[in-house]
Amino acid sequence: MGTLESLVEAVTNGEDEEAEALASQAMADKMDPLKVVDGLTEAIREVGDRFERMEVFLPELMLAAKAMQRALEPVTPYLEERKIEREHKGTVVIGTVEGDIHEIGKSIVALLLEVNGYAVHDMGPDVNALDFIKKAQEVEADVIGASALMTTTMPGQQEIVELLKDMGLRERFIVMVGGTPVTDAWAEEIGADSWAESAMQAVTVLDKVMALRRGDASATL
Amino acid sequence: MPAPPYKMWEILERARTGPFCEDEAFTMERFMPKMQEVISKYGIKYDPATPIPSENKLADAVWQAGLEFFLAVGVLSVDTHRILTFDEGELREALYLIPGEYLVGLGKDARVLKRRQVEDAEPPFVIFSPDISCDEELFLPMCVAYLREPLADGFCAPILEESMGLKIKAKSPTELAGSMEHVMSLREAAKLVGRPGVFLVAAGTAESDVGQISISNSQWGVRTSDSRLVGGLTELKIDNALLNKVAHYQQFGCFTGSLTGPIYGGYAGRAEGTAVLQVAYHLMGLMVHQAHYQMNFPFHIHHTSGTTRELLWVSSASHQAVARNSKIISVSNGFLNAGPATEMVLYEAAAHALASTVSGANLWEAAPARNKHKNRATPMEARMAAEVGHACSHMNLSREEANALLLKILARYEDRIADAPLGSEFQECYEVRTSLPSQEYRELYQRVREELADLGLEFPY
Asked: Which of B109, B122, B204, B260 is buried most deeply by CB count within 10 Å?
């Protein structure tokens, strides 16, 4: 088995120290850093797909993501040296709305977005509507992702959309909503841009929304 | 025997003085590795052929693993980034001091809520609860419909989304208004049906600590003979707002239930880890929430339900573990995939009740349509669960017998879980004016009941 195959296997199995060592070895062997990153990205996407199919569970997904981060550490300087940027699909500010302390669903979405090429700023649970917007402005985000797990906290998602309108920023950010009680009908009612029923679906939907925003004529929701 | 609180202030203070730990490290370095370690050490293995396992050895292994896991991992306060830890001596002292039963409710409506044994011949205590939100105008008719159910030992009302036409937002004045409307209408419904002292768990509309504290009032609100719930954060975490509820409920004097739902497919991993975590949650409920009973709803990360084969095993194994090794009062909450007025939802209610009752749990039934859709719950789903729970204890079923029956029930719905029918909303299968089920739903219910009887379930009447 070659170094890249071993590296992919280490990431898939969530072996972070092994992954970092193999990535260092790959760089020492003068392997193309872009090829390494592509291999790692493909591997982590496959783990994400297997999580969606429940062939692996959240601990395995988290360990694989951690192994990928460790593997990228020795590769990143070589990318920078060659002025190559990793795939960057967009920047997302994500959190659970004010008054809501649930966050596992939001955290899984954040993790899957991150391993699928988005820069993610996770604000955690119980986030005030204005704080979402301020953070999105600060990091020049493309997307605000707001999760709500209780029917009585869903108005927090509406508040974000209304504040954006009042601040004249509605067109500046894509607003994506999710959470157990949240439906497409609710997303439409409050004027959100997109809604996803599951974590993997969130990635797919956001890819399409971003493509539409970029003016990709072939993209449809 | 004294009841909780057990060392309440000493334990709550640990949220300020315990060892420092950040969120990610708690889960990645403490929770996940220890879970793998105890599953392997105690040889816990899920067997899909026995969603109701019958080996005492397995139940005791799940208990031991849960206890060791809880003591090693502790509970993280996400506000203070401190871990509340416990030593085995004090945990065993708290377990020893559990009375095992309480008289709940008031006057003629008071009932005994007690711990059950595995394969217990005593029927379960059944709390009826739709577990979903409803339109404001349906709140009172729904409460009346549930409270008139003869097998309901207690009741938890649906959640309001609006109060006086205003959208309720947690942690805002509308939450206080909605919480007050919730509990006042609930008490009114209880009085209307002639059960003014019935055991009430209230109020789901009050999500925040402030909302709960605002409705403690023996004249018009939650009484000391009633109960409220304290939840947890995923997984094994709490915050100050939850601890505020803990302290307030004890000082007000009502019964506290610990509300926890470990996620199958989440940080605990597969069925084995979810069962071990459920035991750990019972111990967290006892030590941190100072709870008089443990209400638990392990659920599937994708389906948000508890009636898949794996989740029925989780419920059965963890309740057996608790029932065989402690006097903790456990209440099992059904999360069903299908919606009201479908055959599938009634099969699911039956399956959940059977697996829970024979394993030593009381019942909290039920959340149809994956606990997601407004107005999609009726008393009929809870009635089916209650009837099956009573039948199970009436027959004094062994775990082997219950498993054989459960496999037959599972065969009737298991392949439809991913695409479960949404069914009807309350007002579509109940007459709102009378709070009674439609003829069509009554006939459907009777057909399923007869089918369950043909499978071998002997209803007591």
From this structure: B260
